Description:
- By secondary structure, this protein is an alpha/beta fold.
- It has eleven helices and ten strands.
- The chain is globular, with a radius of gyration of 18 Å.
Amino acid sequence: MQIGFMQGRLSPTIDGKIQAFPVHNWKQEFVDAKQININLMEWTLDYCDLELNPLMLESGRDEIRRLSKIYEVQIPSVTGDCFMQSPFWKIGKDAETLKQQFMQVSIACSKLNASTLVVPLVDKGKIENDDEESILVNFMLEKSDLLSKYKVKIAIETDYTPSKVRSLISRLPSETFGINYDMGNSASLGYDPVEEFKEYGSRIINVHVKDRVLGGSTVALQEGNVKFRKIFKLLKEYNYRGNLILQTARCKSGKHVEAIHKYKELVEKFKASE
C-alpha cells in the first residue's frame, strides 16, 4: 500500500473548491511532492476545459512524462470528476458525446500508463434510479473489452449502501472493474467498515484517504468519524495491494504542502500499527 496524493492538494484552492485541477500550479506540484517524498499523484479531470487538460493533449502528456522522470512522481490513477460533473448516465441529448469523451479519457490514461480511472457516482453524478444504473452498467459492459485492451481498470465510487455496492459491482467483470473506497464518504453516510468489506472488500482497487463527520463535511484526519485503525486492519485482512490516495481536508492557513506531509506521516503510522 503506497501513499499518494490527489492532484491539487498541494496547491491553493480555486474558487473555494476543495478539489479542482490546479491549472496554474500543476507543474509545481511535482516539485513539491518530491520535496516531501511522495512519489504518487492521482491526476484530476474537470469537465470545464477538459480538452485543454494536459492529460488530454499529446504535448501535455509529454510534459507530464518529463516531470515524472525528473521528480520521480508517478501517475498510477486518474479521478474523473468530469464524469460526475456531466454524467452520461443522466444527460439525455448529450449522452453520446459524453460517452465518447469517456473513451477519450480512457485512451489518454492508457497512453500515460495510468492504469486506474476513478468514476465518481456521487453528488451530481449520483445514481438515482434503476434506469440510470442500467445505462451506466450497459455502457461499461459494452466497452469492457476495449478498456481491457487499453489496460485501464475502472474504479467506481458510489454512495450506495454496502449491499447495493456489491449488487452493482457483481454485474461487472472483476478483470476490468472494481471499487474506489472513500473512507471519509462512508463515515459521513454512517456505514460500518466491517459490513462494507464483507460485501465488497475483495473488489476494492483504489482507496481515498480522508475524514468526515457523520452527515457532514471533510475535516482534518482524526477529527471526524472515520475508524482509521479498523479500516487499515481490514485492508490488510482483505489483502489490499493498491494505493492510498490522500484526498484530505484543505489547510485553512494555506500551508498545503506541510499539511499533506503531516497527513502522509500519519497514514504511515496507521499502516505500521496493523
